[in-house]
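Fresh eyes needed here. I'd like your take on this protein's tokenised backbone:
***
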Amino acid sequence: MRYDVVVVGGGSAGCVLANRLSEDPTRRVLLLEAGPDYRTVEALPADLASGWAPAFSHDWGLRAEPAADGHVLELARAKVMGGCSSTNATAALRGSPADYDAWAAAGNPGWSFKEVLPFFRALETDADFGGEPWHGDGGPLPIRRYRGEELTGWSAAGLEAAVAAGHEPVEDHNRPGAVGAGPCPNNTLDGVRMSTSLTWLAAARGRPNLTVRPDTLVDRVVLAGGRAAGVRLAGGERVDAGLVVLAAGAYGSPVILLRSGVGPADELAALGVPVAADLPGVGRNLTDHPLVRCAVPVRPGPPCPSFQVVVTWRSSLAADGDLLDLHALPGRSDLAGAESPTGATGFVLVGLMKPRSRGRLWLRSADPADPPHVDPAYLSHPDDLARMVEGLRMARALLRAGPLAALAAGPELAPGKRVADGDQPALAAFVRADVSPYHHPVGTCAMGPDPTAGAVVDARGRVHGVDSLVVADASVMPEIPAANTNLPTIMVGERIAAWLRA
């Protein structure tokens, strides 16, 4: 069967695209997802149903290239319908207006904050601020904040410590200009993680013009005469389509392009892949938020939400125009294992939200079963290390403040007593050793007007030099927002779907 549109990847953006593009009953849409499809809440495994902590049971198993010290980081990416919206910690943050204004200023019309705000509003039903100028009250995604007695003792103490340290109280972190400490907006409803599979896709499943195929790995895009004609699956099957939309994520979409012959010509030729379009930016510009932690032992307790509050602030090395570049998440875990003498830890995670380091990914081979090389290049820019150390110091100060210190059940586990606050080299060494992914990769198919300068798609997601081929996921973001990227990725799906429906 020939389809009008094939959407590759049933993740945060892909489920949105499948819904919006199938709203036209005359358009035949196929959604392909490499992982399984749990169609209802009742069918979900327990870890995917719970929005209280991230889940890692349905994963691609990607690993970063070894660091200088030989350490290898796991790069968790969900392999399941809903993608990372089915496994994440449900932080529903937008970032600052400056993030999106920078996209537009880089030659991408239609992406300024003023222009994307209607899509942010349309995607949500905000239980706390719905109907206010910055928020929606009729969208598929429920958003709320933990407050009052809903806050765990650790979260309440973290918020109290942050305000006492001088961070401005913030009721709504998605209000433009908001910087400070307050409840983190989230999309957990009655304890259930509300993924794009349970929201956008669930609302479209009954449409006769939408076909959903899980457990289906895409090898490459079929190109003919300078245009996309469909996709070829890993088993060899060909699916014809008038339009191919890649929504396989910041690791998946560039890899499919590369196997299709779209990417740096020299790299493709070296692997024996025929070059269809020489786009040197494919796989480049990889950006992720690096993460580091401070931790203490705490007394074990009953299951509870991991992350309820967030603290945002501007470092001393923030770039001009950046409203904030660091954030901290107080949380606790009762799965600490041997690290904690009590079996439980209380921690403050610090994320660098506007990193200057850029990594890349490239093919290991043209075999779709062979994972790519991925080098996230965390802390490769010296300013990133310096700002992470600054964030680490702030996190330690919060842990040692009265409200959180009173909950500690022993001395600091990380960085530990051997790392003194004033010992800059030791702090930097700890950050290098402890840095981990925040799991927000973007930028590997960056939008922009000039492919010779690294742009892969234009401002509407259309691949430069190839007709009928669009990318619509986090990979098109030219710069990373100062926020967890699930909500921005959903917005990208909505924004590009609106253009494709026009």
User: Anything to note?
Assistant: The two ends are 25 Å apart (CA to CA). Residues 382-400 form the longest helix (19 residues).
